Amino acid sequence: MAANIINESNINGWYEQQKRVPVTIRYSTESGLKPYYLTVAKRVKDQYPDVIIDRIEVSREDISGGETAEGETNAGTFEVLVDGKIVVTTNQRAGTHPGSIFVSMSEMDLAISRARKRRRPSTVDGENGVASADEQDTFVKSRLEFLKQRSRELQQNNNNAGSDGPE
């Protein structure tokens, strides 16, 4: 019987996990690309604390058997996938500009925003997934103004109802 009881917190946790955007970073271990993984993971996590960072370390044998179609040896690979879609891919060849990996954060922003919209279609996000302070202030001020106007109308109605009574 105890095995049939479903824990509500587990269901809520699973549901919340389904809303979070996975960011997968694949990199070659032998090529010294771990610092790039660490940098990208830190920047993404700092900017989007709700994403899930997955790391996949690949060896040279995992990358097309270690050689390209032209017979060149792969020196390393570095890929960033957001919700399963490739955003950054770099396949370095032996002897070609080692250590020249560029990750466009604007492309990452766009990919994460799109993935969030797919996973949470009813949520309205501001820039970078967070409603800006200006947007929040505008909403609060307009709501407060509406409430003040409504209060004035009610007071005026009460005053008019009191003055129309029998003398």
Strand percent estimate: 15-25%
- The CATH architecture of the largest domain: 3-Layer(aba) Sandwich
CATH topology (level 3) name of the largest domain: Glutaredoxin
- Rg calculated over all Cα atoms: 27 Å
Quaternary state reads single chain
CATH superfamily of the largest domain: Glutaredoxin
Largest sheet: 4 strands, mixed
Q: In percent, how helical is the residue content?
A: 40-55%
Mean pLDDT metric: 75
The 3D shape can be described as rod-shaped
> What strand line-up does the widest sheet have?
2-1-3-4
Query: How many separate helices?
Result: 4
Query: What is the H-and-E element order?
Result: HEHEEEHH
Total number of strands: 4
Structural domain tally: 2
Structural class comes to alpha+beta
CATH class of the largest domain: Alpha Beta
Separation, N- and C-terminal Cα atoms:
75 Å
pLDDT under 50 segments (min length 5)? Answer: 65-73
Textual characterization of the structure:
The chain has 167 residues and is of the alpha+beta class. The chain folds into 2 domains: 2-129, 3-Layer(aba) Sandwich (Glutaredoxin), CATH 3.40.30; 133-167. Helix content is 43%, strand content 19%. The protein contains 4 helices and 4 strands; from the N terminus they run αβαβββαα. The protein has helices spanning 8-19, 34-47, 105-119, 133-163, and strands at residues 22-28, 52-58, 74-82, 85-93. It has a 4-stranded mixed sheet. β3 (74-82) and β4 (85-93) form a beta hairpin. The longest helix is centred in the C-terminal third of the chain and has 31 residues, at 133-163. The N and C termini lie far apart (75 Å).
